[in-house]
Amino acid sequence: MTSATSVPAPPSDGSRCPCGLGDVYGACCGPVLRQERRAATAEALMRSRYTAFAVRDVEHLLRSWHPQERPPREELDASLADDTRWLRLEILSTADGGPFDDEGTVEFLAIARTPEGRHRQHETSRFVREDGAWLYVSAQESAQD
Question: In angstroms, what CA-CA distances link 108 with 3, 67, 75?
């Protein structure tokens, strides 16, 4: 179980957003994580989910996961190890997932630092839009490069 003292504070609105888009947190993923606005595209939801992993925002991860695929909270808590530091997100490609679509995929590479060294997570995530909100459904991991 993750203790409250181990959860990093969210970035300030004026600091650079962890998702790597180049905007400040208050104009990028911050409002999505705070539920002030919805992600407009599958890519925007992917970026907000990466940011949620980086700042260990379990609530956003659970909210943005399709209810039929969502893991138990305890499993998600355990996966947010204190010793993993997410460093960079690269969006490699998107298919559909725009403002007028109901499905989309996002291929990405996320780089982290763990006690064992550098970690690369390369996958293609699938998203659906239900009742106007994008939701994460599943992922297909790519071979480690």
Answer: 29, 23, 23
pTM of the full structure: 0.90
Distance CA 124, CA 138 (A): 8
Angle at 15 between CA 126 and CA 3, to 5 degrees: 70
- Secondary structure of the chain: what % helix, strand, coil (to 5)? 25, 35, 40
pLDDT for 4 equals 42
Give Rg (Cα) of the chain.
Answer: 14
Helices (H), the chain: 30-33, 42-55, 58-63, 73-79
